[in-house]
Structures
1.
Amino acid sequence: EQRQLNRLRREPTRTLDGTDVKLWANAESRDDVTEAHALGAAGVGLYRTEFLFLGSSELPDEDTQFHAYRDAVLAMTGRTVTIRTLDLGADKADKTGLALRDEPNPALGLRGVRLSLARDGLLRTQLRAIARASGYGPVRVLVPMVSGGEEMRAVRTALDEVLRELRAEGRETAAQLPLGAMIEVPSAALALPSFIGICDFLSVGTNDLVQYLLAADRTNEALGGLYSPLHPAVLRVLRDVVRIGQRRGRPVTVCGEIAADPAFTPLLLALGLTELSLHPATLLEVRRTIRASDLERLRASAPALLRARNRAGIEAWLTAQASRTH
Ligand code: PEP
Ligand code: MG
């Protein structure tokens, strides 16, 4: 079976009825990037930069970050690398000296872009390193934990400044550096029409979106089945984000764990997604599932999926799709 999967490394990610789906890879190390390339990923859809910051008590300087980002860009040989700015919260940031002491609720605290904007130089240094890496191949910048347009405007301003500065220094950067928002805080999903105009692309982080929509801690095992993407509210939000993206011509990716589980692939295709980003570990399985999917039929059954009243109804829809593909 592994051999059959391996054959899919060089095959396109195309549905039975001929639509190409973009399968990006999530990467949190150099090895993940190498693996993503070998598997024929469309690019890196989520490059998590936290690992650079968690290794030591000192913040990585611009050159250290630049070298890591440039290596990823070069390893992808012309395919786009989507670099996410730092997504640390007080639960992890205490070792880096970035966090406030004793934040009572790190998941709702100074995390992600909030921390990047609050700490002097943090965002600027990281954007400079990313922009310098863009001189070596296509790069996009992705902003985590966006709650609305103000954060995106602040990052956009900082990015424009950094690009101007680097050019004045005579450094090579890409002419354009697409800037995207993670949609993982419910307010960002609901307010999206008010700021999609300043986003070049969107990436839905279902891990946090589920946590914040359902008020269910993603790390709390006591919650059992409560923390699950199979909730009608999650599907509604996903459908709405996809629609708004389509209407405004902004590509939408899903990069949470839901994208990595082939059991959920039919659901994401039905909701209109054509771009997923997932860890290399299951990329070929998801590609296999997409290649066995009839996209038009799935989309036609989206209304039934959205009518499901609870998890059991959504699971029944998934079971019905699975029996039709195999
Ligand atoms: C997410 O929240 O879905 C996501 C992809 O980001 P992380 O898991 O790093 O929070
Ligand atoms: Mg997240």
2.
Amino acid sequence: MQDVQSSQLKETQSAADMMSQQPGAEVKPAATMRHDWSSDEARALYEASFNDLLFEAHSIHRTNFDPNKVQKSRILSIKTGGCPEDCGYCSQSAHHKTGLKASRLMQVERVLDEARAAKAGGATRYCMGAAWRAPKGRDMAAVCAMVEGVKALGLETCMTLGMLSDEDVSRLKHAGLDYYNHNIDTSERYYDKVVTTRTFADRLQTLARVRESGIKVCSGGIVGMGEGPGDRVDMLVSLANLPEHPESVPINMLIPIADTPLGAAPRLDPIEFVRCIALARILMPRSYVRLSAGRSDMSDEMQALCFFAGANSVFIGDTLLTAGNPEIDADAALFAKLGIEDLALGDL
Ligand code: SAM
Ligand code: SF4
């Protein structure tokens, strides 16, 4: 383990001064918003003594957010399975024989019924995901109607539909889409070990189009896919060095799916996962860092450490597209134990 570099420690000191603030006190801007991180600098933070890393991450978190509030999103698969991409982790790829039944794009009214239930369950953002490489022109009218309908319910909207053309982006923007999710998944170096049907550069191109349009960006990745620590660090550096930080950064722990190429990947050490959350918080001080896939297999203690390290968003509801997620009651009990409250839409 290396010591935190002296310049980074200086930042820790100033952040630590703010530790005297009461929880929930006025949110102050981060000392620095950088877009020029080097891999080595970020790696030194990632490999610092765990207590130093956590202290720095939590200090930055507390400087920018109420540390006792977590934003809740809910996600629905609006078009499941049969995807032409070959993502090695995914149950929905047509390249893997996972036994998942493919379905067509859902009817708009059914999506709106689900969104109403999500709102009643405490969600403030409704995410809709489709197993596409890219949407087809003929699907865009229905997708835009979903955005308009969900927004009219008073929820924030997020879509994840694969790669977008300029025209797709402008139609989604016109429909009022708040966020677009497009994960970079891993480091550029490790990318082709995970997906071969598109490139890391393709991912960045869609992200640039979305950013340009004014739709907010949700982008993160998956850890525990057999990558090395340098890949985890570089994935976060790539996100932090975008011209603007994604507003939302989901960090997924791989859910191993039988009969996919990554179905037998060894489980990542939970401490390594917490390090990823902490590094995301330090590199992107004002982004919502979402503790995403894999929470069902995380202990309460591990999740508590993640919230301390800077995670401040989760998916609620017992399904995550096609995978499991903690039951609403289990989450309510966990948040009550930790004294964590919902972040209301007005707080965002
Ligand atoms: N097809 C779209 C795309 O890939 O951009 C959207 C749907 S995709 C299922 C949404 C995200 O879920 C992926 O980018 C990936 O990060 C995450 N994901 C999918 N399968 C996963 C798994 N088995 N474990 C953890 N995360 C997973
Ligand atoms: Fe398709 Fe998305 Fe799954 Fe990749 S992650 S196979 S693009 S649904």
